[in-house]
Amino acid sequence: MRGAVAALVVGLLLTACGSSRMTGAASAPGASAATGPVRTLTPAAPQAPETGTTSAEASPSPSAPPAVAARPGPTQRFTFVPTTVRLDRGRVSARVQPITPGAGGVLLPPDDSRVVGWWSGGARVGAAYGSVVLAGHVDSATSGIGVFAQLLTAQRGDRVRLGGVAGRQDFRITEVDDVNKLTLTAGADPFNQAVALRLVLITCTGTFDPVTGHYDQNRVVVAVPDGPATRG
Q1: Within a domain: residue 220?
Q2: What is the pTM of this model?
Q3: Residue 74: its pLDDT value, please?
């Protein structure tokens, strides 16, 4: 199976803040000269402050509201690189290793059909956004039936578990589709990173061409998180 991948460019939006300051002066109008006799006012004698509790002191201070437990933000999530994948249908597991595009931008799974490749240019397990893309051969002339042959019988609601050195996360299958290999290009939806976290599993299906040695379609299975990633 071959598929082209795209690099995700993330733009940073910088927001500038400005400040302004106003100054102003007020002038008092001049006083007019008064006519007639001038009266002198005698100021009242200052009075000593009263002793005792003031009204402010007598009123009890309002109590502070209880603290709210903090939640981890998107950048504080526990994420990890997948090293194993388990498909509940068929109860099969496989080792996962990172893969990168080869010549011509083609994403090639590991040669061993018993091993699955994780696209290292995609999302990590446990992230808030992005597609965790795993690709594996359905079969091989040298290593036999692949682990991802189980995707040919996958159904909505099936469970998938990704494991790592320090954690794991469960997913639930929501979509199962077959697409022509020619449509699985760099801009195709399975490689989209501007989405809420999801798991995308890709293998081969359709008609096998003995001349080219390839199938004409890809099975694309999409799963959503069934809870957050956990340690241990």
Answers
A1: yes
A2: 0.68
A3: 52
Residue 34 three-state SS = coil
CA atoms within 13 A on the CB side of 216: 6
- The total of structural domains in the chain comes to 1
The pLDDT tens digits of the residues spanning 186-206 come to 778 999 999 999 999 999 999
87: helix, coil or strand?
strand
Of 164, 171, 174, 175, which is closest to residue 225 (Cα–Cα)? 171
Q: Are 126 and 79 in contact (CB under 8 A)?
A: yes
Answer yes or no: is 33 within a domain: no
- The CATH number linked to 91 is 2.40.260.10
| Residue % of the chain over a pLDDT of 90 | 56
In contact, 174 and 223? CB cutoff 8 Å: yes
Please give the residue range of the domain that contains residue 148. 83-231
